[in-house]
Amino acid sequence: MGRHRGNSPDEDDHRPRRRSGRSRRRRGRGGAITAFAAAFAVLLGLGVTGWVLIDRQGGCGREDISLKVLAASELSPVLTRIASSFNAGEHSLDGRCVQVEVRGADSANVAYGISGAGPTMGDTSSHVWIPDSSLWPSLVERSTENAVLTDTGTAVAHSPLVLALPREAAEDGEATSWATLVPTDTATPGNGGYDVRLIDPVRSSSGLATLALIKGAIGDGQEQQARLIAAFQGLQQGVATDEEAAFSALSGDSGDASPVLVLSEQAAWRYNNEHENAPAHVNYPEGGTYTLDYPYLLRTDDPLLSRAAEAFRAELTGDDAQSLIRGEGFRSADGTADTEVLRSEAGFQKEIPAELPSPSGGAVEQLTRAWNQLKLNTRMLTVLDISGSMAEAVPGTGLTRMNVTTQAATEGLSLFPEDAEIGLWEFSVRINGDLDYRETVPIRPLDNEVEGGTQHQALTTALAGIEPKPDGDTGLYDTILAAYREMSRTYKADRVNTILVLTDGNNDDEGSISLDELLTTLEEEFVPDRPVAVISIAFGPDIDPEPLERIAQVTKGAAYSTDDPTEIGDIFLQSFALRIADTGEEG
């Protein structure tokens, strides 16, 4: 990474008080030779191996070297104790004592604060940063080139991700893997029959790693996109804003029954300490898991502060410090656990669980962007073709094209949260005076009360009652332009504004605008910072996909086509996947 002094606290700005009550000792010739040899050893050691020679015999007679350390909140209490002992030992560099100050900080807040790109901004003033996971520095690397951030290659602690669930549920449950948390029915968002909870991935390493692990279990490829979306949606329904909310769900305080929570071992141990009346049992997913690795990162390029940071790093990796760290529910970097702390009766295992490779910086960025895109509230106008050809039978189903389409649209409503705003138009040719379209259900949130029911129910009823217009033609182009203008006029910046067109035919309205006129108008009226995407699903043997593809290109939407109307349901999911598909390349 690049170097930028402004990202690291200036030593002179944080100069501590001069130590008092200590007399300086004069050195004779022998002392001078000893001091020269020690200095030479320090220089040689730093240049070759990176080790630091520390004077543990006192002799601090000048200003202290103040080393500021930001550590993950759950790790900072034990590091504060270790730092207190370290400071009492009067570790001296060049006759100046190193004094370590540890502060707890949310890892996500620090990462976003350093990079300047994120939903939160935290305290970044430190010489050493110990986040809970290497995911955060990798995210910083992708976001900025100006941060002073050096990986020392040292992990202060380890804590693998586990599944924590109420003890009663654990006794009845089966062996779990990340794949078992993936929904088997993409039309019904959920997570493999489990009420899976995780902490918001934008703010939590465990949550972010869970997304990567589930994505890995699903696999890559266009055909897997629907399963990924359904899994993400199921997770979003039970996402906890922070650890306190997650603990509340696990303990039953929030009224939830038998949730499965993705936590680190240490967080599960901490939960049990705080909830003795509702302890959790830990399960280790088959096939391996991701491990929080608490990397020791330098945030200074000052030579003296770097030596002080190296001294404290050496302290943290020593036997005494590691014993204290294991006593707080962590493992050492080699996987060693304190079995008197992580006890088997709670499900904790002594053996190191198989560690899956951590996601790359590019994958982390992609996952967070996908999660945020999917989390954005939806505002969608569904535009349904009711031309005469929609009455034709779909071979082998006993259903008409209209039946298959309205069933897929009805099932598709379950993909959206209840605050999604969705409306319905139908179109053919001149079905509303001289207009080719008419509003069937206005755009409203799905949970809005409408005539004794909800908008969701109103849409379901309307879809069930739609009938094709006998001998009706397809006024596609005029309808798309009208829908585009209506959605642009009523655009909402906090939502994804989309038009979904469901049709089995090509434009055959002789009185409509031409395709070229439509494309030119859409190009002229498209506003990049107020986008309205046109997504079309066309089905049937007579479809010409090119016009819809060109419309999608102009509006940054997508066009799907199939000869088989029974595939509409799967394509509906793929169209919804467009919201997270274009999220950047993995690096």
UniProtKB/TrEMBL annotation:
InterPro entries attached to this UniProt entry: VWF_A, vWFA_dom_sf
| PROSITE patterns, per the entry | VWFA
The protein in question is named Uncharacterized protein containing a von Willebrand factor type A (VWA) domain
- TM ranges: 32-54
Basic residues composition bias: residue spans: 16-29
Which keywords fit this entry according to its UniProt record?
Answer: Membrane, Transmembrane, Transmembrane helix
Q: Name one Pfam family in it.
A: VWA
* UniProt-annotated stretches for the region Disordered: 1-29
Transmembrane among the record's keywords?
yes
> Which residues belong to any copy of the VWFA domain?
379-576
Q: What is the lineage of its organism?
A: Bacteria, Bacillati, Actinomycetota, Actinomycetes, Streptosporangiales
Native source organism of the sequence? Marinactinospora thermotolerans DSM 45154
